[in-house]
Amino acid sequence: MTQQLLPIARTVATARWLVREVLLRWRHSLLTVVVSTLAAAAAIVPIWVLGILVDRVRDGAPASGIGGLVAVMVAAALAAGVLSGIGYRLIASLGETVLADLRERFVDRALRLPLHQVEAAGRGDLLARAGDDVAVISRAVSNVVPTLMTAMLTTVLSIAAMVGLDWRLGLAGLAALPMYVLALRFYLPRSGPLYAEERVAMGERTQALVSSIDAAKTIRAYRYEEPRLALIDTASARARDIGITVFRLVTRFAARGNRAEFVGLASVLAVGFALVSNDTVTVGQTTAAALLFHRLFNPIGILLWTFDDIQSAGASLARLVGVVQIPAIGTSSQTTTPSEPTDASLELRSIKHTYDGESFALRGVNLHISPGERVAIVGATGAGKSTLAAIATGTLAPTCGDIRVGGVVLSDLGGQLRGHIAIVTQDVHVFAGSLADDVRLAAPEAPDSDIRAALAAVGALVWADALPDGLGTRVGEGGHPLTAAQAQQLALARVLLADPAIVVLDEATAEAGSAGARDLEQSALAVTEGRTSLVIAHRLTQAMTADRVVVLEHGMITEEGTHAELVARGGHYSALWRAWSGQVTGTPQHLPQVSR
Predict the structure, then answer these.
(1) CA-to-CA distance for 596 and 581, rounded, in angstroms?
(2) What confidence score (pLDDT) does residue 331 get?
(3) Which Gene3D superfamilies does this entry report, sorted A to Z (predicted)?
């Protein structure tokens, strides 16, 4: 299957986003433009005055008059230096502020992305955007953008000053402009796609590295090191080859820029010589014009060369904006106050879902769970149980149908969604930090007494107190290791602390193993007690204690009722129960296996 990368914003959409962000900070932006313009203007003053100084010297002016001009040149140079420093700082500050806001939005949206979308794109693509792309933009904001803005203002004001000396000198300098335009026309159409391709290649390289590191144990077990290394080499070689192609393109671009500089300066000197010969302009004016154009070598070179960095940063920005602009799952587009559910019921109406646009994981599921009711979903592997759980909690948007909590459409709950409904899966994460803080993630202001009560309710307080530093023991990466069952109890304790009205447990006891199954099932019961609950049953003993059992086959509900009713009915669930409870010897081939 072809990897489905996360979306990349179009150039127009990226530019529109950037302009909007800058205009939102219009006071900062206006001050930046004013200070930078004054700095560029002050930098031109010494050259303008130098032209006057040349004419004064040629005319034999007294030293006193010359001294005043020198003082003006020194004062202007100092002012230009101070204003340039302030302008540079303002530009960098504005850019860093916009980037910081973009980073926060990117992380927020990345955490809200549907899991299937992240899995389809691969973690490498997401990590490359969060790491490499942010780093590229950060370097551009800190170094390139301030330099670029200064160069643009210097170029515009220098050309204006040349025209002010004599319009013909200005036109002579502009003779280089067509060559610069041709250089850009050669470079830009080729560089844009190359930089976008380079960013994608870097994402693929990161994906190859991350997936290989994550699966290191499996790779070693199957002696699969060489194929994985070959995959990494291929991804790295592609990124390298694209980088070399970019470098060759930049070299050819630089040569065209150098030719433009030669033509421009030669034109100014030639026209200036002719005008001085005819006494149309002075030697000082020609000198100033030549120096102004020569001074443009650096800013114009910066403008041309920074297109290299700007193109790369633009490609990275488009990748970040592409994620930021993905519609959030489980949030409302309305600007009004989110609706409030009338009760704790959960209803799924005509739910259909497909991952590939062809086969359906769910086919018209209708399910209503009354407030406080505990419903168990039973079915073979691939029946659609986890898909149903993800859709019920808003983690995954269904292809068709809608979900209602207390009569309110899920999307209308807005940011209050997680206050009403929570999900615990078999894959839980233990965050780095103290055990108490790990549980407190669900309620940051919760006191220690509430933390202890939640742990006690799920049967985790005994082993938690036995840790080296009790609830203050550092867990997670680099901390005290926890068993799968202990990690699951922490996740269940978080749910108790969050206290949602509806809980979905997606095989939340699957990692306990046979020894810890009973204890973890008791923990799950404590979490679901008094709450509307949807339990994806890993063990049929969970279904036996539920108020209602729903059997899912091939994405459709085929049976529904209490445990006793379904066993007596003699259908598919009854066969599963007999196989599970050991009332028959072995499991016939026609009986699907319950997910283990």
Answers:
(1) 15
(2) 47
(3) ABC transporter type 1, transmembrane domain (1.20.1560.10), P-loop containing nucleotide triphosphate hydrolases (3.40.50.300)
pLDDT of residue 328: 59
DSSP annotation string for 489-551: HHHHHHHHHH--SEEEEESTTGGGHHHHHHHHHHHHHHHHTTSEEEEE-SSHHHHHTSSEEEE
Taking each helix axis as running N to C, give the angle between helix 63-112 and helix 145-165, from 0 to 180 degrees, rounded to the nearest 10.
140
Topology alike, domains 7-164+306-326 and 346-581: no
Predicted TM-score (pTM) of the model is 0.59
Class of 7-164+306-326 in CATH:
mainly alpha
27, pLDDT greater than 80: yes
Sign of CA dihedral 46, 52, 56, 57: positive
Domain boundaries, the chain: 7-164+306-326, 167-280, 346-581
Question: Is 392 in contact with 504 (CB distance < 8 Å)?
Answer: yes
**In the prediction, which pLDDT does 532 show?**
92
Which tens digit of pLDDT belongs to each residue from 541-553? 888 889 999 999 9
Rounded to an integer, what distance in angstroms lies between the CA atom of residue 564 and that of residue 552? 17
Q: Is 60 exposed, middle or buried (0-12, 13-18, 19+ CB in 10 A)?
A: exposed
- The per-residue pLDDT for range 500-523, each reduced to its tens digit, is 889 998 876 655 555 556 778 888
- Determine the Cα–Cα distance for residues 87 and 79; give it in Å rounded to an integer: 12
